[in-house]
Amino acid sequence: MILPRSVLAGLFHRCASLGDAGIAALNEAGDRTGAEAVALFGDSPDALPAAEFWVFLDEILRKAGLGSISFKPGGGGFAAIAWRDSAEATASGDLRCHFATVLLRSVLSRVAGRAVEVAAVQCGGGTEPCWYLFGSAETIQRVLADGPSRTGGQER
Fold it and tell me: Most buried of 69, 107, 113, 146, CB within 10 angstroms?
């Protein structure tokens, strides 16, 4: 079961005062929530066409009160996800990025059957979407090293 938004909002609020221990707790919650989300896809989430996968994942996140995502393919082996947080998540500040990054990594790695790296590259601060890149660890490192021209700005 994915935690209701009120429970997650309380978790975000509580973890804000715990420093590194709070971040570790959010990482664990993100991983477990990702596992629960993948379970909702059924027996073969990897068999879904990509467009259906992203629509279904967005529906799962919206129903859980976590916000809404949209997918944008990238070049060179990476892609981007725009995540618009719910009001409860936005109130928690940057802590939500730790949770969201690990949740996305958990879902994508489980569906792919291999490690998928996810990196938060732009936080929307509640008014704009937060942007996450995903791909192999090497590709994400290369894209981030290439700087803002590859990860931010107008191409979104």
Answer: 107
Q: In what order do the strands lie in the sheet with 68-73?
A: 68-73, 79-84, 130-135, 117-122
pLDDT of residue 69: 84
Instruction: Spell out the CATH class of 5-151.
Output: alpha beta
pLDDT of amino acid 155:
37
What is the pTM for the complete model shown? 0.80
d(CA 84, CA 86): 7
Rounded to an integer, what distance in angstroms lies between the CA atom of residue 112 and that of residue 109?
5
Q: With 90 as the cut, is the pLDDT of residue 61 above it?
A: no
- The C-alpha atoms of residue 19 and residue 26 are separated, in whole angstroms, by 11
Copy the structure tokens of residue 123.
Answer: 């936080």
pLDDT for res 78: 62
User: Torsion over CA of 78, 82, 86 and 91, rounded to 10 degrees?
Assistant: 80
Enumerate the β-bridge partners of residue 144. Answer: none
